[in-house]
Each structure stands twice: as C-alpha cells, then as structure tokens.
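Q: How do we represent a protein-ligand complex in a form that can be generated token by token?
A: Start from the inputs.
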Amino acid sequence: MRIALLALIVCGTTFAQARYDLVIHGGRVLDPETSFDAVRDVGIRGTQIAAISERPLVGARVIDASGLVVAPGFIDLHQHDQTAAGYRLKAMDGVTTALELEIGPPDVRKFLDQRRNAALINYGTTASHPWARAAIFGRPAVGDGEIVPPSGPATNDPATPEQVQRMQQRLRDELNAGGLGVGMGIQYTPGATRQEIIEMFRVAAERGVPVFVHSRGDRVESVGEVIAAAAVTGAPLHIAHINSSCLREAPECLRMVAGARGRGLDVTTEAYPYIAGTTQINSALFNPGWREKFGMDYSDLMIPNTSERLTKERFEQLHASPQPQPIIMFNNTQAMVDQVIANPLTMIASDGVPGHPRNTGTFGRIFAQYVRERRSLALMDAVRKMSYMPAIRLERSTPEARKKGRVQVGADADLVILDPETFRDQSTFEKPAVPSTGVRYLLVNGTLVIDGGAIVPGVAPGGALIGPSAQ
Ligand SMILES: [Zn+2]
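Then emit the structure tokens for the protein with zinc ion bound:
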C-alpha cells in the first residue's frame, strides 16, 4: 500500500515534470560528437534540450518530425552579411549561428549593440586588424557596405613600429569589447610586413583566442606564413576558405595544416563549395599584377546578379571607383573544390556576402552535391563539418560553444529539422539571393524561427557570442 502510494506520487511528479515547452517527435536525431543516430523524441524546455527519449514525450506543442533529420543548427564561422535580411537567408540554409570572424567590423561594441534583442540567429565577431590599421592610417570605415578597406595607403603602406603598437592596443580594446578573436585579411593589407602580422598574433596569444585569417594570397607560401606566426606566438589559428586561398595548391595547404596539427599546433581550416570567389573590386586584392599572380584574366570576373563579364576598360573604371562593388571571380576547378570539401579537416563556412550564391546556399549545397549526388560525405560527417567542428573551434573564444553543435541533454536548443532528401541550395551565380529549401523547422535558443518551412515573423531569439576578455 505504501509502496503503491509512493509509486503514484513518483509517477505523478514525473508526469508533471515531463511536459515540455516543445517536443520534436519521431525525427532522426544526429549528434556528431557521439555519432548518435537514431529515431527519438526531443523535449525542449526554455532555451535548452531537456530530454531525448525513445518513448513519446508530452509537450505544449509537438512537431511531427517523422522522416526528417534533427541536427545541431549549423554554425557559420564566416558570414560577412550580418543584416536582418542576411540572417533570414542563413536561417533558410539551416544556420543558427553566423559569425563575422575573418575580417571583423570597424567597431565591435557598435556591432554587438546594434544586434542586441534584434537578431533572428546567434551572432558574434572578432577584433579587426584591417580596420584597426585603417583607423590608425586615418581611413576609417565610411559605410556598412564596406567589408574591407579599399586599396590605399591604409592597406598598401608599411606601418611604423609606433603604428604597429597602436594597432595592438586597438585590438586589445576591441577584444575587451567582446571580440571572439583577432580577424585578419592579410591579402587586403599587403603593406603589413611579416613582423606586423606576428605582432597581431601576439595580441591573440596574450588573450588565448584564435586568429581567423584570410592569408596573403600566395597559396602555400602564405599558409606557411600564418602557421609560422601561430608557432612562434602560441596563438591558435583558423585559416579561412582554404579552397580559394590555395586554389590548385589546396592539397598541399591541407597537408601543411595536418602537419601543424600533428605537431601539436591548434590550426584549423574551412571551405565553401563553389568554384568562384568574390570580393570588392576596389580592394588591394586587385593591386597591379593580380592577373599574373592569380592566373586570371578580366573575363574571369563577373558582376553579380548579371552575366556581365569584365573587359580591361570596365575593370579599370570599377577598380578606381570608391564604390565597394562586389565582383565574382572564377578562379578554381570543380575537382579541387570537391577534394577540399571531402577532406576531414575542413569545416564548412560560407564566407557569405550578397551577390554570391554562397551567402544563401552553402549548407544546402553540401547536402545536395556532396551527401546526395557525389556521395563523398556521409550525412553525419556533413553535419559534423557544419556544427560540431565549428563549435569546437569556438571553445577558446567562449565557453558557450560547449553547449552548441550537439544534440544532447543540457545543450542549447539550436536545432535544424530538415528533409534530408530535399534540402538544397537554389541560388546560382546569375540569381544569388534565392533561399535554400528543405529546412522545415529551425530553433534558436528554444524559439522557432522557421515553422513549417517559413520564417516566423517578429521573433529575435539570437544571442551574442562574446569573447573571454569582454568587460
Ligand atoms: Zn576571405
């Protein structure tokens, strides 16, 4: 009798506790950390995953996920388009966290303030070396359309030792404002000497955060420069888009990353699944000699949203303009991109900017092209490259990262629920702003931001990821 009563109380209590805010019922749950892959119910309470159960769970709302994959929301370490419209497109591509780490903005505090309580997905950024350099050379940012400073003295001239020290102080201040690391675009600041680069790595090493770097653009040579800077300073290193930074030398660049890791250095890398890159045509990347250096010609350049290929005259007109006109550069081969994407060392990151289909379609394209069509990536490996590996990369920047990139009890409820047969990119080089299809539901910190395939209006659950020096 007493036992029965006790059992009743326990059952009653259990039942009362076991009502979740949201239940995702009967989906194929993938956890890339443990390689768990089975049909389960997932119970969400507040902002976290509270239960993963073989038996059906009870929730205030139950989503039927039969036939769908339930995976950690994708974490994009490299997203320049940090607008509300950009966040909607990222969400449609399965992304729950989109970070501007490669270059960083002109002002970290302003960047974070502008997005507080206003972002659809999670966001964060780095202390920017190119913008620190521009500020100290007296050429601050003039508008939000600028991702990198245009070519000029601030990008092309060497700095004095005193200017280098001021850049270091600027980076420290930006890390104190919440930067997740140091962002560098060495190819966009060709005036920066190897010594200047090492001094910037030293600031990251002081704080124990990574340097996220677009390397100098001489492929193997440039990867050697940043691995050496990591080795001599102790700063962790993340090399952006090894596909476009190394082009035909990408296999050797990846061997160098593997070799550095094998000798205990914290070096990681990423890639995006497209044969063309993009940048601003008035940037220092197009300083004289670019055709010889990249093996490209004017006709390899295209204006986004059109099919217009450039001529010498048109190039010179656009290059000299103060307008940060984006340009598509056809500079890689499909075989090289395929090899880089399949390499176990590469995370998937979009380098998203308006005008290039990678801004909208990177993650869907991995499913369409590499999981389904070429079958060069297993589903779990694709999910790992898009969620768990970036979360691990972020652990030195914020302890919050340990709760992301996983489908586990206690993890943040950042989840993508997608149809593995239809999730795909829709954007092309001619029409680069078409949202991906196949993401049926997306949760950010427990809140639905995509419901039944459509963006939920009026929600802003995205939180900031803040670096360890924030004051
Ligand atoms: Zn870049």
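The first helix runs from residue 2 to 17. Residues 1-16 have pLDDT under 50 and may be disordered.
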